[in-house]
Amino acid sequence: MYKLALCDDNERDLKEIGHMIDEIRHAHDMNVELVTYHDAGSLIEDVKSGNNPDVYMLDILMPETNGIEVARAIKEVDREPSIIYLTSSPDYALQAYGVHAVRYLLKPLKQEELYEAVNAAVETEDSKKKDKHFCLKTSEGLLCFSHKNILYAECFRRMVLLHTVDGKSVKSVCIRNSFEGELSELLAADNFLQTHKSYIVNMDYIDSFRQGEVRLISGDVIRISKNRQSQVKKCVLKYMADKNR
Fold first, then answer.
1. pTM to 2 decimal places
2. Of 58, 75, 173, 231, which residue is most buried, by most CB within 10 angstroms?
3. What is the average pLDDT value for the chain, to the nearest integer?
């Protein structure tokens, strides 16, 4: 499921674009969810709290700020945002493409153009998910690992142990942040799940799970804490269902 955030101060435009997204979603069987914002401040607040959309649709001409400034604020948290700019004026087009613009659409919008833009943004997000990397501070320096190569991570004596698909284990330097804080980038990805205060697993490599533990395809058995049993089961089943659609 891809989350689309539409930010526009014009109530009529919010409703019209929302209706068009609904039609696009049903006509093309797109797995997207739309969340609307009447002002930029609310969107930025959500992003800073970790509630990041996958795709941003920003009106450029808003009373308190413009969409390009909003994009710059978003970029401080979300480094490579996929943004579709919406406006009634072409004057900002050159600026817009300097801040990760997937498309620049002129109002009034045409449904086929909006579909093409949203589809392009979703494809961009797909590519980013396939190629995402996580970097770990080690005694040898900063080492980066493809998300696809991370089996699971564990917290051990104030360090992060990263276990990879190819059978290696890499140890971080001593962490000052919490385990969750240190690996917040992984937890923000769809396929990583915290099963225990000391374990985060890549759901792509779960072989089976039962009361109290998850078994990975590598044979590793990862603990599930009692207070996370129901949540872990729900998240794993939903992830597998979405993946197999």
1. 0.56
2. 58
3. 88
Which range among 32-36, 59-63, 78-82 shows the weakest confidence by mean pLDDT? Answer: 78-82
Write the DSSP string, the chain: -EEEEEE-S-HHHHHHHHHHHHHHHHHHT--EEEEEESSHHHHHHHHHTT---SEEEEESB-SSSBHHHHHHHHHTTSSS-EEEEEES-GGGHHHHTTS-EEEEEESSP-HHHHHHHHHHHHHHHHHHHHH-EEEEEETTEEEEEEGGGEEEEEEETTEEEEEETTS-EEEPPPPSS-HHHHTHHHHTSTTEEEEETTEEEEGGGEEEEETTEEEETTS-EEE--GGGHHHHHHHHHHHHHHHT-
| 67 in the same domain as 148 | no
Q: Do residues 99 and 125 share a domain?
A: yes
